[in-house]
Structure formats: structure tokens, C-alpha cells
């Protein structure tokens, strides 16, 4: 049984729209777990009244993304999940999303699968996975490298984001849950999928399964929208900071091949220190 795990903290309109998109799926043989981490905008009441079919896990407001997802996965496993699909609440699943994810999951039962992401405003693809050259810290954007005719089926990637990530039970049994201690928010998803790949599990972006996303609503974009010294420090050191130096160090030490580690770290630090002002 597939369980969809969605961590939420406020932003009720997104949560409602996301859950409604899951109600409209062409396949309905899945269940949903929402981890409500202390929302104060009426999320709990709406979940109880409008979405009684959803399993709810309640947090105290201090879980952040990683611990929230882990709490949802633990509940899903206790309920008998054989596959888990993590999602963020600010995505919309196209009607055949679950069907197309499960179709490939059946063909590749040990694979970790992500999805093609579309801009909710334009319908244009905005993310289709990356391949990372560790030796130069160079990211190869598959959307830029694949022709329109090649944008279908599965494509191997280095890592995947957690906003539409299908994880087989075999992966969880082999490598455990997300690293909530060292990576409480950002990079936990890239780390998890990198660790899975290093343990021999295939990691693919599924171009036939599509999610609509809101690129401008990401935490990194909001931090950079109004640049300031406070925002810069938040970017580098805050738990939600997209350039968090501590998180990047943990990710690198765990996943970068040792011969490339010194350059990868120095290059990554430089990019984070300067990148806040360059986007």
C-alpha cells in the first residue's frame, strides 16, 4: 500500500488545494498522512471536517521538514505502508500522477522515483532532475540537456527533492529515515536520495509523472526577495537557510567521493557566501 506523507505548517490554502488534487487521482489505492506541525491557521479543523479520510499526525511546531516527514513515515509504516511518497503541501498532483508513479514503481520495485515539475502559472517544466559532477561541483540540468522528444520515461539522476518522492520499503529498511539530526530542513532530501543511490538503489526522475509547483514560494526565493544583512545571515546559518553552511558540510562529508571533497567543499562555501547576492 502506498502512503502519501505531507508535512504542513500553516499555508492552509495550499494544503487544501494539494489534498483536493489527490482526491482527483485516476488511481485511488493509496492513503494520505498529513503531519500538522502546530499550525495556527485552522488547518487542524479543516483536516478534520473536510478531509476525514486523511490520517493526521500532530507536531508541536518544532519539527521542521525532516522530522515532520519522518513522523509521517513512521505512522505510515505502522499502518502497513509498503511504499511512501513524500510531498510538500505547495504542489498539485496532476490527475494521473499517482498512476504514473506506481506504474514505474511496479516495473522498478527498488527504485527511488521523483517527478517532473511544472510551473503552476504557466504549465512549463521547471525541474526535471540533475546529474552532479562531484569533481567540479557542476550540475547538469536534465531539462536543458534533454530534447523535447526525450522528456518521457525514467532518467537517472544524482539526487531528488522530497516534494514528490516515492520511496520503496526496501530502501527505508536498508538506510533508515531522513537525517533529522544533522539536516533538519534543507538538503535532507538530496542527502537521503544520494545515500540510497550509494547503497545501490536506482534513483530516477519520472518524466511521465507531473506535479505543478509554485517556484516563487520556496523558502530560498522568499529569503532572497528582500536582501538584507539579516537575510544573508539567515541564508547561511538559519535552519531554513538555503545556503546553510553547516548543512552543506554534513551533506558533502556524507556523499562526496573523498578525492573530490576538498575542492567540492571550498567551491560550495564560495558559492554560498557569494550566491545570496547574485540571484
TrEMBL record:
Glycosyltransferase 2-like domain ranges (all copies): 4-115
EC number: 2.4.-.-
Highest taxon listed in the record's lineage: Bacteria
GO MF terms, alphabetically ordered: glycosyltransferase activity
Keywords: Glycosyltransferase, Transferase
Residue runs in coiled coils: none
Annotated Gene3D superfamilies: Spore Coat Polysaccharide Biosynthesis Protein SpsA, Chain A
KW Glycosyltransferase (keyword) present: yes
Similarity comment: family membership: Belongs to the glycosyltransferase 2 family.
Protein name: Glycosyltransferase family 2 protein
Source organism of the structure: Hymenobacter segetis
Amino acid at each position: 500500500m502506498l502512503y502519501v506523507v505531507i508535512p504542513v505548517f500553516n499555508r492552509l490554502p495550499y494544503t487544501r488545494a494539494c489534498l483536493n488534487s489527490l482526491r482527483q487521482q485516476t488511481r485511488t489505492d493509496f492513503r494520505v498522512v498529513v503531519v500538522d506541525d502546530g499550525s495556527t491557521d485552522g488547518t487542524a479543523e479543516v483536516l478534520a471536517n473536510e478531509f476525514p479520510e486523511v490520517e493526521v499526525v500532530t507536531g508541536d511546531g518544532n519539527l521542521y521538514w525532516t522530522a515532520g516527514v519522518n513522523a509521517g513515515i513512521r505512522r505510515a509504516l505502522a499502518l502497513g505502508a509498503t511504499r511512501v511518497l513524500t510531498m510538500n503541501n505547495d504542489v498539485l498532483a496532476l490527475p494521473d500522477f499517482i498512476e504514473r508513479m506506481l506504474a514505474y514503481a511496479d516495473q522498478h520495485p527498488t527504485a527511488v522515483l521523483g517527478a517532473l515539475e511544472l510551473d503552476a502559472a504557466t504549465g512549463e517544466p521547471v525541474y526535471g532532475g540533475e546529474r552532479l559532477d562531484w569533481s567540479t561541483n557542476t550540475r547538469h540540468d536534465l531539462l536543458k540537456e534533454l530534447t523535447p522528444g526525450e522528456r518521457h520515461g525514467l532518467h537517472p539522476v544524482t539526487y531528488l527533492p522530497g516534494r514528490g518522492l516515492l520511496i520503496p520499503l526496501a530502501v527505508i529498511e536498508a538506510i533508515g529515515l531522513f537525517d533529522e539530526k544533522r539536516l533538519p530542513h534543507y538538503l535532507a532530501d538530496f542527502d537521503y536520495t544520494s545515500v540510497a543511490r550509494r547503497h545501490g538503489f536506482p534513483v530516477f526522475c519520472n518524466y511521465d509523472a507531473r506535479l505543478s509547483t509554485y517556484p516563487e514560494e520556496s523558502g530560498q526565493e522568499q529569503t532572497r526577495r528582500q536582501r538584507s544583512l539579516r537575510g544573508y545571515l539567515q541564508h547561511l546559518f538559519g535552519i531554513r537557510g538555503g545556503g546553510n553552511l553547516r548543512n552543506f558540510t554534513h551533506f558533502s562529508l556524507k556523499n562526496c567521493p573523498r578525492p573530490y571533497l576538498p575542492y567540492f567543499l571550498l567551491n560550495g562555501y564560495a558559492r554560498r557566501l557569494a550566491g545570496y547576492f547574485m540571484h
